[in-house]
Amino acid sequence: MNSMNSQETHLILRKLGIKPNKRLGQNFLIDKNIVSKILSESHLLEDEVVLEIGPGLGALTEGLIGQGNKIYAFEIDFKLYNFLTEKFRSVKNLELFNQDILKAQIPHHDIVISNIPYSITGAIFEKVFYKEKPARGVLIIENTIAERIFFKNTYKNFSRITVSFNAFMEPIQKHKISKFCFIPTPKIELALIIVKPKENINPFLLIEDQRKFFLKFVAGLMPYKNKNLINGIMLFLKKEEIGFSSKQEIYNVIKNAKFNDKKIAQFKVEEIIELSKLIFNWLYN
Fold first, then answer.
1. DSSP bridge partners of 197
2. Tens-place pLDDT, residues 160-175
3. In terms of pTM, does the model score above 0.85?
4. CATH superfamily to which 204-284 belongs
């Protein structure tokens, strides 16, 4: 495995005329030990298809190619795409796409293995994981986001991404990764996470319009996680302008469904899914 070192990476970037773009999350992996760690944690089966998002200069891609699996790699930067196309021109098990992953039609895949662009982590999660049959994942992400995903029972880390991610995926392992394994060095701390699809995703989330409502509900409710449920729902309805009712009416709906009017952060993920189902049916059925 011939991962590029710091000097080689800087040289190639200068040759390509690329100044790393923070908006695109361009932090290039230069540590071959991290590549080996990712491959080891992936436990790839022979027939599994891999999705890589933002391959950059191809340090991880090169390691994946050596595993022999079919790989789909999406690189939005045209200069990097051309570099990768030339670098891997003789490789048969790699298919490169010069597309924005958030707008692309992604081919079927079994696992996402990627150092994903940190600035659009939430959007990528929604695109690749929040659906009926998500793939498993081995990903480098921002450590604070990893903590929100893994630590579900603490008020500080209980957030929108905690609820939405854990509704579809099961976190398995988290490992701290040194930010000095990347060029340029990110200002954030990083983590390698291993996740898999939940065995039984709530049936409410398997229908598209209901799934969209759930994600909107979570996004609108969690800013009020320190408020009691009824007040949080009132604020959500008012802000989203999708209906507004009296506090008494909301109280009746919640009481009839046997939910307690406790602080939102005290609810479990599955309870919030059921709450979204309750409010959806109340509003639209």
1. 169
2. 999 999 999 999 999 9
3. yes
4. rRNA adenine dimethylase, C-terminal domain (1.10.8.100)
